């Protein structure tokens, strides 16, 4: 008798995460956009924040799809111990870009896989990114393009902000929103991917 493979549920409405998981040859059976409080806890570091939110998103989706294998992720941009917000307005995006200009920062991309039996597998990628020093004109042009909206740290590495990236050490897919090496490893361990 063979074990039944649970349906794969992606706990994210992000088209980037759908595109990334497709690179592994997977199409989710269901997509559930979770709505959790993403506010950092007092004293929470960027690394801990990313891991906690990925697990909370998986648990929130599991309440709606208890028989599914829930895959979720969260990406956090950290400047030192500071957690940079998802930019929802131009002022926030401009502040983030000015802070990241000419310096290194870390991008923590956590992934969680919650199985129907309650088993939670987690992984984290940590990527170091260094931006060139940005001129006011470069920041203005990037803000005008609108790619920053809803993005952690106010930028999307898969867009024109890649031109600001002097170097990157770690997972490029993790900076986009789902670290594929870590995600694949979790899916293989769970028997969901060969």
TrEMBL record:
Gene3D superfamilies associated with the record: 3.90.950.10
Pfam families: Maf
Residues annotated as site: Important for substrate specificity: 16, 75, 158
NCBIfam families in the record: maf
Broad class of enzyme this protein falls into: hydrolase
Protein's job: Nucleoside triphosphate pyrophosphatase that hydrolyzes dTTP and UTP. May have a dual role in cell division arrest and in preventing the incorporation of modified nucleotides into cellular nucleic acids.
EC number from the UniProt entry: 3.6.1.9
Primary location: cytoplasm
Similarity comment: family membership: Belongs to the Maf family. YhdE subfamily.
Catalytic activity: UTP + H2O = UMP + diphosphate + H(+); dTTP + H2O = dTMP + diphosphate + H(+)
Protein name in UniProt: dTTP/UTP pyrophosphatase
UniProt cofactor(s): a divalent metal cation
Subcellular location: Cytoplasm
Keywords carried by this UniProt record: Cytoplasm, Hydrolase, Nucleotide metabolism
Cytoplasm listed as a keyword: yes
Active site (record annotation): 74
